[in-house]
Design goal:
It is a single chain. With 329 residues, this protein is α/β, with parallel strands linked by helices. The protein has two domains: 21-130 and 267-312, Rossmann fold, CATH 3.40.50.2300; 133-264, 3-Layer(aba) Sandwich (Rossmann fold). Helices cover 44% and strands 20% of the residues. The chain has helices spanning 3-25, 39-55, 70-83, 99-107, 133-145, 164-176, 195-208, 220-232, 247-256, 267-282, 322-325, and strands spanning 27-32, 58-63, 87-90, 111-115, 126-129, 152-158, 183-190, 212-217, 240-243, 262-264, 292-294, 300-302, 308-310, 315-317. The strands form four sheets. It has a six-stranded parallel β-sheet, with helices on both faces. It has a four-stranded parallel β-sheet with strand order 7-6-8-9, sandwiched between helices. The longest helix is centred in the first third of the chain and has 23 residues, at 3-25. The protein is elongated, with a radius of gyration of 22 Å.
């Protein structure tokens, strides 16, 4: 082999080694969602990819079960642990059931945070709430009450009965009910974040409570299904559907009048913030009470004594702004 060939060969080997080393140094962050195929989480993944691009040395692994079960998430988590990811950011289907598996992940040096729907404290290093639970609870009741000047019956259509975030928001909503005289909460039902079951549960509420004035769904799947049930029942203008939804999915309901207004934080921002937090904790940021952890363009997350932080306030969407946001997420 000539000297020139040896030099070129050595250079090629060195370049390959450098590329391999750079790839190995990438921080692999797994975004684990409640279930694949849900628009809210797909939008969150866009935010995660934005954060990865900004950071430059991050690889996003977007994954989750095919249905909203703890068993499905545990299977996914075990695969990620075996794969040796650097960090896991999870929106949990059950706060307690996934905790032991996540403890195993942390024992192996994997950074673990929860976001959107939390994990029991022992199963994560911090939790990022999309907003203040108290503000969300008040918002979903106020959205219904603002369009019920004479009061009346309302019902809640939630996700699963074990869903951490929905349960907390519902409790906060119940706390502020005395602030809205005449608003009577008659039932809370669960659609398991499945479109068909949520639709049937909404139908059941309509049939069971003939004086129902509003259905409050603090879940993007539930609010869309309930809006369709009200539309199909010919009750637009009589039963208002509100809660938390995606502008892209709820535009038709707002335009038809099945939903007067609803709220949501920006899931793109949420996925972005969760990725930034997982990355910075992996790189050494402390998670002690009072710590402030950078979230890039979203500012910083300040942890409370439970290791929790809030991202931002919920935002209300209605006919005045739905056209602007429906093409974004």
């Amino acid at each position: 082999m000539s000297i020139l060939k040896k030099i070129l060969t050595s250079a090629a080997v060195a370049t390959a080694l450098m590329a391999t080393t750079a790839a190995a140094e990438n921080v692999k962050i797994a975004i684990v969602v409640k279930a694949l195929g849900i628009g809210f989480f797909e939008a969150a993944n866009k935010g995660a990819e934005e954060a990865a691009k900004e950071l430059g040395d991050v690889e996003i692994i977007y994954t989750g079960p095919t249905d909203t079960t703890a068993e499905g998430q545990i299977e996914v988590l075990n695969a990620l642990i075996a794969q040796g990811v650097d960090a896991i950011a999870i929106s949990a289907n059950d706060p307690d059931a996934v905790a032991p598996t996540l403890q195993k992940a942390m024992e192996r040096g994997i950074t673990v945070i929860s976001w959107d729907s939390g994990v029991a404290k022992e199963g994560r290093q911090m939790h990022l709430n999309p907003s203040s639970s108290a503000l969300i609870g008040n918002t979903i009741i106020k959205l219904a009450a603002d369009n019920m000047p004479d009061g009346g019956d309302v019902a809640i259509l939630s996700a699963t009965s074990t869903s951490t975030n929905q349960n907390i928001w519902i409790e906060e909503a119940k706390k502020v009910l005395p602030n809205y005289p005449g608003i009577n909460l008659v039932a809370t039902v669960y659609g398991d974040d499945l479109a068909d079951k949520s639709y049937r549960e909404a139908q059941g509420l309509i049939a069971t409570y003939p004086n129902l004035k509003a259905i409050i769904a603090p879940t993007t799947v539930g609010i869309l299904a309930a809006s369709q049930a009200v539309t199909d029942a010919g009750l637009i203008g009589k039963v208002n559907v509100t809660g938390l939804g995606l502008p892209s999915e709820m535009a038709g309901a707002v335009e038809s009048g099945a939903t007067v207004s609803f709220a949501i934080w920006n899931p793109i921002d949420l996925g972005y913030a969760a990725t930034m937090l997982a990355y910075n904790i992996k790189k050494g940021a402390t998670t002690e009470a009072g710590a402030s952890i950078p979230m890039g363009r979203m500012g910083a997350a300040t942890l409370d004594e439970n290791g929790e932080a809030a991202m931002s306030d919920p935002f209300t969407y209605d006919k005045s702004n739905i056209a602007e946001f429906k093409s974004i997420f």
